[in-house]
Amino acid sequence: MQGQLLKFAAIDIGSNAVRLLFANVVADGAQPVVQKESLLRVPLRLGTEVFAHGRLSEEKADDLVKTMIAFKYLLETQRPLAYRACATSAMREAANGPEICARIEAETGIAVEIIAGKREAEVIYSNHVAENLEAGISYLYIDVGGGSTELTLFAENRVVASASFDIGTVRMLGDLVSATAWQALKGWVKTLAAVHRPLAAIGTGGNINKYFSLAEQREGKPLSYKKLRALYTALKSHSLDRAVAVETRSRRRHHSRRPDLSGDHEMGRHPGNPRAASGLVRRHDSHSV
């Protein structure tokens, strides 16, 4: 098996987009090396209906099933060794989520697993991110999704705590995040930050990656809170159409949507996150499901 190239696939049914990832795993050395081959993203915006009405409409459910049928054919042509399909916040909250998953399996043969928020946070540890972190520093791993935010605290090369909060970009854009949710998140961070110092932040997901591209940040260099705040303020001052135009000019290779950066900005400025405020907000490219 040494040096052999193995192909795997993953499907992520998120609140904002549905993704199909193909990755090659090279079994070479002590740890396997994962290389992204291709990533297909379909912005179905499932969360816009679920978070407002508690379920997916028949039209939106049809769109999801059609997307999964397309993914089925791609899986058949690419022939991965194995794959996994998971659904997160929107499908967790949709009253007809299990019914739609059953329909997907009946029409495509793809079994979709609706995973709990805590499990979603725990998956981060399976990426072996802790093995590459600097000793003597605690790290708060922040994954802001469309419907929820997953936080994982690493200290001494292990997971100390993890939690999931109903705060995500789709909810923010629809003004559907409660004050209670924000208070719970801030309380969780403040409590842990008080005993785990120094503390740095690592962000993952489309929004923090958009931050880095707009900031023209060098790979591997942390994004300062000052620059983070400046980008947030600049985008917040524009209308949606204007923000998209600014973003498109800056990075034409990205899809056209205004990133809701308020979640990343809020986490960066929190007084319980001192190293983030001093400039240690890092990006981590994560494509696992």
TL;DR of this structure?
The protein has 289 residues and is an alpha/beta fold.
Description:
The chain is α/β, with parallel strands linked by helices. It is built from twelve helices and ten strands. The chain has helices at 46-53, 58-78, 89-93, 97-108, 117-122, 169-173, 179-193, 206-214, 225-236, 240-250, 262-269, 274-277, and strands spanning 5-13, 18-26, 33-42, 82-87, 112-114, 138-144, 149-155, 158-165, 199-204, 281-283. The model is unreliable at 253-261 and 269-281 (pLDDT under 50).
End-to-end Cα distance, whole Å, is 24 Å
Strand arrangement, major sheet: 3-2-1-4-5
Report the sheet-strand fraction: 15-25%
Number of helices: 12
Q: Report the oligomer.
A: single chain
Order of helices and strands: EEEHHEHHEHEEEHHEHHHHHE
Largest sheet: 5 strands, mixed
